[in-house]
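Field: sequence (string)
Field: structure_tokens (string)

Example rows 1 and 2, in order.
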Amino acid sequence: MQITDVRIRKIEKEGKMKAVVSITIDEEFVIHDIKIIEGEKGMFIAMPSRKTAEGEYKDIAHPIKSSTRELIQNLILQKYNEELLHSEAV
């Protein structure tokens, strides 16, 4: 599995959510609405989710293996940090 594209839409408002991301896998499958969140222990991603009738949020799409989630998170956060550095330089 290769992540072939990462598109980041930064959120300008103050708050914990910093960006919304779409990734393309193998130039054939897209996952939209991955969120970059600033938590107490640093940045992390939240996969797309939906609120249930009970008020809980359940992921709509997510990696099965923790190693895959880590790979996706590391790549997204790397791209996000690159965009931050680029926007500060401009």
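Row 2 begins here:
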Amino acid sequence: MMCLSSPDTLSTPRSWVVAALYQFRAIEDPAALRGILQDLAQELQLCGTLLVASEGINGTVAGSRESITALHDRLLELGFTRLEYKESLSPHQPFKRLKVRLKKEIVTLGVPVEPREQVGTYLSPDEWNALTADPDVIVVDTRNRYEVQAGTFQGAVNPGLDSFREFPAWVDEHLAGAEGKRIAMFCTGGIRCEKSTSLLRQKGFQEVYHLQGGILRYLEEVPREESRWEGECFVFDGRVTVGHGLTPGGGEMCHSCGWPLTGEDLASPRFERGVSCPHCHADTTEAQKAAFRDRQQMYDRGQL
């Protein structure tokens, strides 16, 4: 569903308020909640995505200052009083449409875990800096490899995931025998680590830590001069990346394959905006590239 219109009352001139949120909480009737949130989001003229499952809600949406505040207030009324919730700003509409979807999981790991009952130890950004400065701590980036491309923490292990579903198998292969080690995990907003740390606790790991609020909260709170973060953080909206202070970054995304692109990628002869980049050029046929090229021309003309 397309967004109805741009926000008419904004927190700063021509800016959108972007809210990233989640909470694990038992939902007795996910379909009914999905209907409530669909109607509310349409009424508030929000864009973005909300996911609803029996285990809770997850999503990132954008709208005017008043609309985002109204959404937050309504979620509190619906019992989501322990939301992990962060706001940032975008100078442009960050999502093309609104999607409110029913899912089996609000973040798909593919194996049963109990994040409401068994999870790692939460760390504030300052506590995270202190712990991860120790070279004996194994720091694991639980995001997909295209996200890691844009930036990550100093010394972090990149599992090279194409999907979070691959994480359990990676743990079995690469962390077997490390049950006595201290493991520190992070992700964009914290939700994947709710499940990844729960998984490790379930497998017998005892000292498992979790950056509360994820990279977004870290970049919001930690001054650049005290930061252990390198690069920018990939986000799933039109900004592509954000930096310290959650200011929009300099990232650009390939709209064919979704990879964040470096300056070197953009200069490559295999890069064509909306059509291909060095990461996907060899994976699509000329007929597919022609279709992507037509789509990009329609987008440039404002028809999409």
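free_text_note (row 2): Residues 16-102 form a domain with the Alpha-Beta Plaits fold (CATH 3.30.70.100).
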